[in-house]
Amino acid sequence: MMALVQNEWMKIFARKSAWVYMLLIVAIVLVAAIFYNRIYGKDDPDWRAKIQQEIKADERLMQKDPDQYADLAQNIQRNQDYLKYNINPDAHSNWHFMNNVVIPLGSFVTLFSVIVGSANVSSEFATGTIKQLMIRPHERWKILLSKYIAVTAYSILLLAVLLVSGFVVGLIFQGAGGFHTKFIEDSLDFNNYQIKEIGPQFFLKFALYLPSLVMVSAIAFMLSTLFKSQALAVGIGIFALFITNTVGGILLFLMEKYHWVKFLIFPHLDLSVFAYQDKLAGGVTLPFSLAVLAVYYLVFMALTFWYFQKRDIAS
Amino acid sequence: MELDHNIFFHLKFIETFMDQFRKYLYNTSLTESRDDMSEIALSVKGLTKQIRSKKIVDNVSFEVKKGEIFGLLGPNGAGKTTIIRMIVSLIKRTSGEVYISGKSLDEDFKGAMNEIGAIVENPEFYSYMTGYQNLVHYKRMSRKEIPEEKIMEVAGLVKLEGALKQKVKTYSLGMRQRLGVAQAILHSPFLLVLDEPTNGLDPQGIREFRDYLRTLAASGVSVLVSSHLLSEMELMCDRYAIIEKGKLIHIETMEETTGIQNNSLRDIIFTTDNSAMAIQAIEKQFDFAVSTMDSSRITVSAAYEDAAKINETLVKSGCKVYEIAFEKKTLEERFLELTNHGEEVENK
């Protein structure tokens, strides 16, 4: 088994694309850091005085214009929290960079994992090397499993590249920051906020990102095995990735109305919502989401391995 | 290497000793029966593949002996490839059994597959890796202990040592074919299975390929090869089976086909300086069927030994004999005869 995984690992890295994707991730992080730096200039050492001024200005406005009372009161509350918890609203550090920029860049890791994962099986069929692979004294499911393990290991490597480059690039561009630095995290609808520690919040978001990576990669792996077509596997994999980002809101809305929508896979592919709130929508909690994903995962994997085990390799 | 030989020698010695001992004990030879078993490299029994109601391969049985090159002949679409792919388990069998050096594919899949080396159609490689990496890849997949030197040894055999560090995408088709042979024999398999191996090879490549097979067979490897190129198979095989519409319709040896048996009549062509004189001389002495081909060549239907007598007669009667040739029956003729397509061809 070890030898099989070793083979697959060798085949992944014998291709230039495997290295290119890693470099691309570093490059993307670098470009993101440059823009992030431009937008959020330098630290203002007098931020406390500035906020105090803002509070006073808001208070004066409140007396003049009682219609805006609610908005202004919220603003004052927020500013007072900045002072109370010693949170610089414009603070930037490598941990802020990780939290604001590196997490969204995770989509690239998913994208590259999908491409490499689906190419891994479908290219063996496309070039005919699958025949040479299957006439060896190994069960088919073991050969497929070794491929899955190698592809997963590659995804983990891409994640590590993202994390390390994010941390280092953040350190260079933004400077070091405390892991437990407090910051204000707005709710998803911007009507509310919570005070959180930046490091733990980053790792929470990161952990919530992982199930979607696993699921989207598994879908791509399954499709490339079932249909032997990389184009199809990548296409649908990316479709699954973006459908949650684009129509995710609509799905959550539908989930409130229709009971069965919560058993679809799509609303659960983006779990990052749980970093902001306890429930997705319609009473769906994190354990429920994970359970739904686990069932889909098992079904996908069972289907993939069963089909691969029994299929005739005729062409 | 020397050490290996020594060990082998010792083992052989011990084996012989044990056999003597057994003979003494039971007064029977166990070796004989065991040798009979290992003489069969591949045994296929009742192999059938059914897709829906159609039988693509129908109850095919045959055996390949040790060191034998066995051919599967048949027109395209007859089921040769399906048979081969069932043996190497690329395609699932509907029914039937396959034994490779006595190991059943059903009961001992890993053991049986470990004894197979195969080239299925054109050997495909990971073109983005070097030849060496490709061989290492397949070395790792074997369940046998293969020393590192074996890769170089095999590469030397197929004359690829110089190109091992190059990526396979730079290889010519002939080089790929040779790399295909290398990966198939890397783990010293008992049985080599080749499906349409000469497809796309140039004449020189085909010839080299044939030479490899001969060398391998001589060293005790058995070869199962399929092709629709009859002239190719005629030069390659010791024995062959003809597959038609999924059924095995005939098995015979190449010698039987090309007819080197002594007693049967065959066409002998005599090239002399004067056909008319030659015919006269022969008809005076024998009652063989004789016909004129042209002014210098005549055909006599006679047995193998008769050639010498005829020659003697011709020389005595003053003919100058330049050449005596036996008309060989080709595999193609035999094939058409067996598959009943001969009449159709003649009618055309």
UniProtKB/TrEMBL annotation, chain A:
Signal peptide: none annotated. This is ABC transporter permease. The chain crosses the membrane at residues 20-39, 101-127, 148-173, 206-224, 231-254, 288-308. PANTHER family: INTEGRAL MEMBRANE PROTEIN-RELATED (PTHR37305), MEMBRANE PROTEIN (PTHR37305:SF1). It holds the Pfam family ABC2_membrane_2. Keywords: Membrane, Transmembrane, Transmembrane helix. The keyword Signal does not apply. Coiled coil: none annotated. GO terms for molecular function: ABC-type transporter activity. GO terms for cellular component: plasma membrane. It comes from Weizmannia acidilactici.
